[in-house]
Amino acid sequence: MKSMKKIKRVQPIIKLKQTRVDNEASILAEIxxxxxxxxxxxxxxxxxxxxxxxxxxxxxxxxxxxxIVTIEQGLDHVKSLWYAHYRKVQELENKERAQIARLNEAxxxxxxxxxxxxxxxxxxxxxxxxxxxxxxxxIALRQFVNQSKS
Length: 150
Known about the structure:
Elements: H1 2-61, H2 68-149
């Protein structure tokens, strides 16, 4: 029963590969969570920037131009925040792509080992079937020999 030994040797490897797939998936989930938060922050700063631009344009067209420099500086700050969030989203998207590639590789490795286990299981069933058939043949032969002696 060589196939049974092979199956037993493959089972810990499958557990290890499954653990790796689970770990890679959890890392991907964390990256996705961070990306969602970064996109929300980027959109919020973009919205603030647009509101600030509207306010600045309103002040520029009015006769009273108090605090225009302060508003422009605040707007520049919001714009730099928006750009920082944009870069963070880009960085997270790159990490996400790399993590998806790692997850896909881990899944391919797991599937390869599972296919190997399936082959070993098929071989084991064949071996078991042959052994059972041989035993049945021997029983039938003994019964035939015992009947012919009688």
